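Margin note from the TA: students keep mixing up input and output lines. Inputs are the sequences; the output is the structure of the whole complex. Example:
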Amino acid sequence: MSLLDRLQALNDKAVSGLENCEAPAELESLYHEILGKKGELTEILKGIKDLSPEEKKHAGSRANEIRSDLEKRFKDAQSDLKTRAMEKALEEESFDVLRPVSYHAGGLHPISEVQYQVEEIFSSMGFRIMDGPEVETDESNFGSLNFSDDHPARDMQDTIWVEGGNLLRTHTSTVQVRSMKMLEPPFRIVAPGRVFRFEQTDASHETTFHQVEGMMVDKEVSVSHLIYVMKTFLRRYFEKDVEVRLRPGYFPFVEPGFELDFSCLVCDGKGCSVCKHSGWVEIMPCGLVHPNVLSAGGIDPSKWQGFAFGLGLSRLVMMRHKIEDIRHLLSGNMRFFKAFHGQAH
Ligand code: PHE
């Protein structure tokens, strides 16, 4: 084989060898084999001295051409391998930003969850959602609701007073007053919110709890409307017909006034701490709006009537999740909420 042919064969061998290189070490040994000091090119060029001056020139320039071309190819192959190694590392070491890092994702507080559901049920019956402040005037909490200044029923509501003669609202009935002043009858409203009482706590009493006030003002509103709305609500909330009973109840702002009870779902009526071992739970004090209250709200009681109720939101939560002690609800105890969340979601 002539020297030129041997150069060409070496070139071809190097090119195909480069194509099969998988690792930097392989590349390096191929380089030494072909272009190294003691490599094949050096070996071939030893034969140059036997050529004629004309052939020497030709073979010399061809050898340089091949060397510089191969040098370039080796460099490219080297950077190619580096890129590939980098890509591989990135793929192996990368992390999925969408992968959940915690299985304890946040969730709604059980009270909020129930509140939203109650709002939804009443909204579907044409009630609008109202709101009011937690620090209230004596007038909104009592005066406008037909409690005279020395009314004994003021003592029923163990009030927490704040500076300036104001108070923490003892019930959401304050929003009845605000709604009558804001809205033109006929209207239907519900107002969920926190209320406060200065009292001894036990499994069914807390100083802070939640109610949902309800009020409907229209022409010819009667007790049967009230019962219908209550029963519809309870059926939708508990997704079954629950037993209810109506007892007379006294509140200065309703006449007649009732206590609506329903059979305890924690113990199925057998008796437990939630129902005070009676099998019945008070869930809704209610009644027809007292004419004095309509007047205080700027509504003519000879033209309009209404019903009102105060739904125990905390009780609804306890019934739904069979929680026996109301004090868990606002305890902030994460062990309680985690156990509870497994159940709720
Ligand atoms: N506001 C009363 C309470 O919390 C409940 C109630 C509301 C009674 C509406 C009748 C009508 O004690």
